[in-house]
Amino acid sequence: MNTFLFWSCLILALEVTAYKNPDLPGAKSYNDFKVYRSYPKNNDEVDFIQSFESQENYDFWTDLKKGEPVEIMVSPENERIFENKLSTRGIKHEVIISDVQQLINLEKVGSRLLIPNSGGGHNMTWTDYHPLENIYSYLDYLQTKYDFVTTQSIGKSYEGRDMRIVRICRGGCGAKPAVWIDGGIHAREWIAPATATWIIKELVENDYKHPDLTENLDWYILPCFNPDGYAFSRTTDRFWRKTRSDNGNNKTGCKGVDANRNWDFHWNDGGSSSNMCSQNYRGPKPFSEVETRNVRDFLLSVQGKLIFFNTLHSAGEMILLPWSYTKDPAPNYSELYNIAVMGRDAMQTEWKIGCVPCLMYPASGTSMDWAYGVANIPYAFAMELRRKGFVLPPDEIIPAATETWNFHITVVRHIYSKVTQYSLIL
Ligand SMILES: [Zn+2]
Q1: In the annotation, is 79 catalytic?
Q2: 148 CB contacts (<8 Å, ≥6 apart)?
């Protein structure tokens, strides 16, 4: 059998295997888990629904706000009690996904594990969600092929995985205004790393289409902020959100910290939890997580050069502005808002724009607030990418990534012209 035929057969076999048996051995099953949409219409109803959030087996897929629908995944054992409690209170609710596992299976059809490299190339695509190894092999490929691309490990994760950024700098890094983008701080939000790698691809492989972006700016992109959690969400629990640290807690067995509640700026100032089992557990102290410390240290190492910060999340179709912890407007809130509108126009979407508690509920200890409030990055954003259910089918990766790319080129160009016009830096 010649080599081509061999790999073709192997890939086909992997595809068939993936189709028939999309679960990896030992993966948590979400058979018969349902997702409900509920409609709290006043503060009492919000408070009542909030009481489920700290309990295991109730997983909030969207944020809770009066007058807005909220989506909650409920295990089969809790289904009846959940429905009864909401019905007794007269809170409107409906089932929007009747079997979450079916959704996961669909997502995994065609989601191959490791496709071998062909001839020193890479195995990255944007029609599947890929393991960390494929993402990193793509960074290696770009570094080898393009002289303005380098990669750097900014440190190891709790379980010892490299946290790798790509640095896209013509003529060397450090002389120009700089841009930061990260994805995947929340492990289960797979579209975020997929979108971050798409942005890398556009910047590097299609550089000739928009040379100003690399001539004028340095780009630092961390596609996978939480590599331990990402790996765990692929092999064991699709809905893992936090890091995988232990925190000395063997009583509950609950691991991990919400890396987006762990930053030392208004840490523990509302919208985070002290419960180790909560999805929003803020950690025992600020920067308890090595992943947040690694990113902090890198951002501080290029502080003063960074003019733009964006951290990619899913899902909610929102462009979020500082602050996360309070509704008090950030100093340049109206400017941030207007820039976000320009970006949204470029995306051709109707996404909501506003501060975090303006659109949802407060969240403290977030990376965006730290980037804006401590690292003094003047234009700091967070994005909740497109949704179609929490699990975005692979055929939506390219549309999601493309609209997010359109936001970035418009917004970053505008910010660059503004910053250089007024000599805010350099
Ligand atoms: Zn998130």
Answers
A1: no
A2: 168, 169, 170, 171, 204, 207, 214
